[in-house]
Amino acid sequence: MGGSGIGGQILSAISDTEGFAQITSWNNYNLPKWTTKNCFVICVSYSGNTAETLSAAKAALEIGCDIDIITTGGKLETLAKDNNLHTTKIEKGHQPRAALPLLLKALICRIGLPNLEEQINEVNRFTLPIDKAKDIASQLKGTIPCIYSNDLMNPVAYRWRCQIEENAKQLAFNHQIPEMNHNEIVGWTLPNNQMSVILIRDNNEKIQIKNRFEATKNVAWNELEIVECIAEGKTPLARMMSMIILGDLVSIELAKLNGVDPTPVKVIENLKNELGGN
After folding, report:
1. Where are the alpha helices (DSSP H) in the chain?
2. Structure confidence by residue, pLDDT tens digits, 235-277
3. Based on the structure, what is the number of domains in the chain?
4. Does residue 179 register a pLDDT over 80?
5. How far is CA 228 from the centre of its chain?
6. Are the C-beta atoms of residues 166 and 114 closer than 8 Å to each other?
7. pLDDT tens figures, 110-165
8. Residues annotated as part of the active site
9. Cβ–Cβ < 8 Å for 67, 85
10. Which range of residues forms the domain containing residue 207?
11. Do 174 and 98 share a structural domain?
């Protein structure tokens, strides 16, 4: 869930395009009804106290699945110890959304990735695009960002949305091409100066998707200033991480422009207190 769940979404998207495994990212209580004891379930909660993840872990135990736990501690670690489950402990002291590198590393260690050394080497080549992030943030200030991507970059667009919402404390939305061409595109019929458009592009897009991006720009956004970001890197992981790093920096710069502290998420804590941990 939340910042703890994005790593699973990244690997699920890569597996969909690369075909190295069948990975379902589950963000809810319990587990899908099709889950059997032959499924390998990895429960990820940075705090170890995420109610939905605890519920899923208990459901996996009842089914008899092979289970791994990734956490810093909390109730999830206690559950793992009580049931002799393999646990990867990660470093404490971060907001869950800021712990993505730790959580993703732990997931990759358990699931694996094709050509892992090449994927990591590509990521290590990046430099922080701070000036670009400042420029994008200045274009987004005072608007509600609408973020669009292809299938591989969909978790990245969702990450941008969540980081803008949590760090900059403002709304953002995301959708995917081609699906938005069948519904949301109509919503751009009437002009709306409150909205801004961000395109998260993959340098390895299929020609059909490339054509749809260009056609959508001409049909729906021809009078708007568009922020277009093109992923760098030769591997799927590298391309996704290049855009995630940029999006994280944009959200921090936008928080500065909005005059807010990006770290606290008091509304989430208030909601947890209201729910009583359920």
Report:
1. 2-18, 51-63, 74-82, 100-111, 116-124, 130-140, 154-167, 207-220, 236-258, 266-275
2. 999 999 999 999 999 999 999 999 999 987 888 888 878 887 6
3. 2
4. yes
5. 19
6. no
7. 998 888 888 888 888 888 899 999 999 999 999 999 999 999 999 999 999 999 99
8. 166, 182, 272
9. yes
10. 129-258
11. no
pLDDT tens column, 63-90: 999 999 999 999 999 999 999 999 999 9
Q: If residue 263 lies in a helix (H) or strand (E), which one and from where to where?
A: none
Relative orientation angle of helices 74-82 and 51-63, to the nearest 10 degrees: 10
Two tokens at 186?
């109509």
Question: Do the domain assignments include residue 265?
Answer: no
Instruction: Answer whether residue 263 is part of any domain.
Output: no
Q: Residue 165 in contact with residue 172, Cβ under 8 Å?
A: yes
The three-state secondary structure class of 226 is strand
Q: Which two tokens stand for residue 245?
A: 């790093």
Q: How far is CA 136 from CA 129, 186, 195, 229, in A?
A: 11, 26, 14, 10
Q: Helix count (H) and strand count (E) of the chain?
A: 10, 7
Preceding amide of 32 cis, omega within 30: no
Q: Mutual orientation of helices 154-167 and 236-258 as an angle, nearest 10°?
A: 20
- pLDDT band for 278, please (50, 70, 90 cuts): low
